[in-house]
Fold this protein.
Amino acid sequence: MQVIEFGQQLNCPIVLCLGYFGTMHSGHVKLLEVAKLRAREHQAKVALFTFSNNHLRVLGKDSTVVYTFPERLELYKNLGVDVVLSTEFNNQFRACTGNQFVAQLVKYNLKGVVCGFDYSCGSDRMDSNTLTACLADVCHVDIVQAICWNGSKVSTTLVREMLEKSDIATVNKLLSEPYFVMGKVVHGRRVGSAMGFPTANLQVSSEKLLPIGVYGGTTEIDGKSYRSIVNIGQKPTFGLDYVNIEAHVLNFDGDLYDRTLKVALTRFLRPIRKYNDVNELVQQLKQDRETVLND
């Protein structure tokens, strides 16, 4: 997958998906499916436009993100995107009108554009119908209708709501793959090792939305997937009130420090709670291990 700055030259025909693509939920996947069909018709590559930063911060909204930019690139690659056109959402970009944005788009060899029914661009909020008219002499625009789940439109907002409830089962039904975290393994307090449950402590972006709880999941190491117990949250048994993420990787023995791991959550096990002592916590962890191994 090729990642280039929006505006940089690209010497190939493309079918371009327009949006932010912050989660790659089923609605986003539908856009990609349409783009892939168009790309095959025109012997073109599938391209996707996105912002490389948290654009909500620039808009004055104190918001976390479901996936960081590196995590989103992992998603795009897994879904078969050929080219990512990325740019930083800043005040200069924010001031561009829809027509100015389209003027930049048409510098590429567009064989098609795909967007959602509620897509808009530019400071004047050019909608998908006006975009279609602007590109009428350039290429066809496919407008994809909403995908619904239980009567609600599938959206990043819906994914966020479910994550905040730690409803990982629903989140994973909405997303293209199980929700995951990518982070560098850093040194911790080594309390887990002392209890017989060594953990990989992940350093993640402060902008990352983390669902609080204990989960069954998987950790990718050298191309192999290992079942894991994943703890996201505080450590009330030890009097620690800051949130971190750590994974006890089952049936793995090796040094993971300074490595970047991808840890996916596959099922909710239990909420964070305070135990009377370490022995009670160890007994709970043994039960968690059996649950994960028997999944």
Q: What stands out?
A: The chain is about 30% helix and 30% strand. Residues 114 and 142 are 5 Å apart (CA to CA). The radius of gyration is 22 Å. The mean pLDDT is 93.
